Amino acid sequence: MNENADLVSRCAVELRRMIGAKEISPVELLDACIARIEAINPAVNAVTATCFDEAREAAKAAERAVSAGEPLGLLHGLPLGVKDLEDTAGLLTTYGTPMLRGNVPTRDVVLVERLRAAGAILVAKTNVPELGAGANTRNEVWGATGNPFNPELNAGGSSGGSAAALACDMLPVCTGSDTGGSLRIPASKCGVVGFRPSPGLVPSSRRLLGWTPISVVGPMGRTVAETALQLAATAGLSTSDPLSYEVDRLSFAMPAPLDLSSLRVGYTEDFGSCDVDDAIRATFRSRIAAIAPMVRTCEEAAFDLGDVHRCFDVIRAESFVAGLRDAYARDPNELGPNTRANYETGAKMSLADGAWAQAEQTRIFRRFQSAFERYDVILSPTTPVSPFPWQELYAAQINGRAQENYYRWLALTYVVTLTTHPALSLPCGLDHAGMPFGLQIVGPFRGDRKTLAVAHAFEQAFDAVPALRRPRPDLSKLTQPTPSLKSIVTAPPILNSTGESQAGTSAV
């Protein structure tokens, strides 16, 4: 058990090296991950459908390839969890909605194709809000995902299952996606790394509106190096995504060295437009005080982002109308409250609304560039509140101020989405409530390598300071199931890889 615990806690980069050097076998690593999932997942409900038998066959094949001296991919033999919004051939993909409770795709999305081609071994799907709507990972198919630091609190979303699985060392590679913060927010709340890449860097073959940059797929990891390794395996041109482009994939495989003392940092608590809890502001100020001596300059940055909230409302709604039109026409009651509200809000908008929002986003983008004439990166909090009980659908109030809708509390991340700049949430100690605190690092336009390099340098510096280093959940407190996480499920959630009911088995 101790050997397994040590193995699954190792960085994916180190695990990949060990596999290539024949120090461990892919089968040994897979078995350790399955053991961790079976031991811990009932307490947090991060992992949903699994394909353990198929994964074991793939691990044996990966072991044979190592023994035969065959060329090995960047992720060869590494167990993989895929967010349940991405189609996986032969493995149940529900999107967290009862409408797709038995959906078993016949082919992978491009993201999964590339991960498998790089040698990753698909093991499981990870939990999401219904259709990815919102930053609280809960749905009527699988139930809620609890925060590894306190399962009664939310893990963020929509990549909450992936973030919680990584934080608990269940799997070394997990995917995510991000519209308004769905990579960054759960990473912040669970104490891991979530990177929103520039649109098109990682192709998304499931995006219906192929020309809009608002939604991206991207990597998560326990460290920046893990995150970069997954990015390197998935980046580059694909005819499935009209925004994708050619890149040197291997140039992302390891963050470049960077001297923090040369860095010009701008920081903001709220981008001049976001509600942020006073306690989170205080935590952020303490982090900035610790960071300032590490860098060349550290100055508060001012922003004028126009009508950024309405702009996001309209552009986000366009995607939901495109995706939900048929389901809504069939039966509006099939949709959960978040997804139905998204469709109905968007359906009321006019062509004039859409044209205004596209023009306003362009204005926001151009205004945002002025900050990077003075700074190399912009720092902010990733989320405006500490994790709250998952039973609360969203943060309805911040500092006593009512939020207009269920996603307004995500403004710190979605304003950055509109700029199309790369952004990463980096673990940075604990907040006032003893929960993980995420530092949002916003890089220059198309500056993905720079953003990763800065994050890696900060990560190394933070690791030497107990108050700043990445927090780890106490897994000894996660040895018992958390029954309340299944309390919102209204139909049997326990399904195998083909979508058949498995009454009496353990849902993982």
Explain what this protein looks like in three dimensions:
The chain is an alpha+beta fold and 508 residues long. It has one domain: Amidase signature (AS) domain (Amidase signature (AS) enzymes), CATH 3.90.1300. It is built from 14 helices and 17 strands. The strands form 4 sheets. The protein has an 11-stranded mixed sheet, with helices on both faces. Helix 5 (110-117) links the parallel strand 2 (79-83) and strand 3. The radius of gyration is 21 Å and the shape is globular. It starts with a helix and ends in a 45-residue tail after the last helix.
What fold name goes in the CATH topology slot?
Answer: Amidase signature (AS) enzymes
SS strand fraction: 5-15%
Mean pLDDT over the full residue set: 94
Trace the largest sheet across and list its strands: 1-3-2-8-10-9-16-17-13-11-12
The tally of structural domains comes to 1
Organism: Caballeronia arationis
Keywords: Transferase
InterPro entries: Amidase (IPR000120), Amidase_dom (IPR023631), AS_sf (IPR036928)
Region (Disordered): 489-508
